[in-house]
Amino acid sequence: MINELVHIPDGPAIIEGMLEVPANAQGIVLFAHGSGSSRLSPRNNYVAKVLRQAGIGTLLMDLLTVEEDKTYETRFDIALLTRRLSVATAWLHQDPRVKGLPLGYFGASTGAAAALQAAAKMGEAISAVVSRGGRPDMAGAAALRQVGAPTLLLVGGWDDVVIDLNQAAYDVMSCKKELSIIPGATHLFEEPGTLEEVARQATAWFDRYFKKGMGNLVIG
Predict the structure, then answer these.
(1) Assuming Cys at both sites, which of 91, 127, 142, 154 could form a disulfide with 102, CB separation 3.0 to 4.6 Å?
(2) Average pLDDT estimate for 139-159
């Protein structure tokens, strides 16, 4: 079992994150939060807790430093967010304690665009992607067409504009995919039972595709 604060270097910048991996984990999900949020996001932490209860490890991290997050434009720098997520992925690949475990991405808002761009670049290294109220359209059509990892797009039923944006991205993608509308939910899934449904569907998605790519590594 792993439960530790980690620091991942990207040039002069240091990404801080919380790595929690239960014993005998079947995979690890890296969380890419949206603009104005952080690894302390109560919504992402709730989903991460549900994933860990299902035997899936999590890495919640800040893709921007404190100084970078003060700049509005930087929060929407998808290329930078994608690079940081890719750096964190490479860092996990080199950690002997978790090496060989299937990896997945969970992205919210702009973090979903970064997750999809990173998945397009990482190819078979990423087993599954889930987007919560995300902006997959911001990943760009070229990246969306290159994503090979099975992708689940979760959108609130009352989040009209984002539904349309997700549908447009969905239509471009050629991987295994699903667009799931959560009834009665707005953008932040604050309505009773809606975040629980997000966690349930995300867990089932990662569980399904992690099992397909599961190696023989066991974490103690």
Answers:
(1) 127
(2) 97
